[in-house]
Amino acid sequence: MIRRTTRSAAGPAAPGTDLPARRRRARRVPVALLLPALLGLAFLIMPLVGLLIRAPWSSLSEQLTSPEVWEALRLSLVCATAATGVSMVLGVPLAWLLARTELPGRRIARALVTLPLVLPPVVGGVALLLVLGRRGIVGSWLDSAFGITLPFTTTGVVIAEAFVAMPFLVISVEGALRAADPRYEEAAATLGASRLTAFRRVTLPLIAPGIGAGAVLAWARALGEFGATITFAGNFPGRTQTMPLAVYLAMESDPEAAIALSLVLLLVSIAVLVGLRDRWMSTP
């Protein structure tokens, strides 16, 4: 005879019935983690708050309307946009090469592409001088054959900014290419499209958001570049003095002007963050 047993109401609860309580316990932040986390947040926010508090709000419009500020701002926008264009022309094909091919040395090439991200910008400027300077490996040939001199010119600013900004675009576009389904390109190839046509008509529309995000990041990085620019292009007003260099120069003679210029760069950074909010701020 088979005996049937039943659990009493006082018995252990069925699995899963105490999930809300478990979730509440899981969401409790340990004090040992909360305190350093808040200190880290304050460490990142307080300098920005100090910049806003010490800003010369009463004379801000006067500071920002001076000819020197407008010249530095104009040069920064022009050079950052040109550097972004160079990064897109060279970086998108490079990202495709890293993501869609199996060429030997591809991993080494990827490591070299990301090297400017961790390389001190001043070292990058020195490296550019050794290659593109008047006595550099390539620069001496450009000077003797064509009379082209790149250092300490506006073109030199664009080159220095593109050197430090292009990795941001390459990494973003390569990630978009790896996320895109390659079967669309294969389907285009079976319909008779060439590799270049498939890239232009199929691949580019698929990775357009990644290209846009990478271009914005590259533009913002180029706009804020300092070390490589001052080393390779110098700090000549009207020719190579961008906004970060103007801030550095103003700190020595006019701190209020330096703060005003810093506020402009801060607003640009916030605008970039807002523009990329779906990428950086949508994580639950």
Structure description:
The protein has 15 helices and no strands. It is mostly helical and 284 residues long.
Tags for this entry?
mainly alpha, 0% strand, 284 residues, globular, 73% helix, single chain, 15 helices
In whole angstroms, the N-to-C terminal distance is 56 Å
Low-confidence spans = 5-10
Provide the gyration radius in Å: 27 Å
Order of H and E elements: HHHHHHHHHHHHHHH
Mean pLDDT level = 84
Shape: globular
Strand elements, count: 0
Strand content: under 5%
Q: What helical percentage do the residues reach?
A: over 70%
Number of helices: 15
The helix-and-strand class reads: mainly alpha
Largest sheet: none
Please describe the topology of this protein:
Blueprint: H1 19-27, H2 31-53, H3 60-64, H4 67-100, H5 106-118, H6 121-132, H7 139-146, H8 154-179, H9 183-190, H10 195-206, H11 208-223, H12 227-232, H13 243-253, H14 255-275, H15 277-280
Helix pairs in contact: 4-8, 4-11, 5-8, 8-11, 9-10, 11-14, 13-14
In short:
The chain is built from 15 helices and no strands. It is an all-alpha fold and 284 residues long.
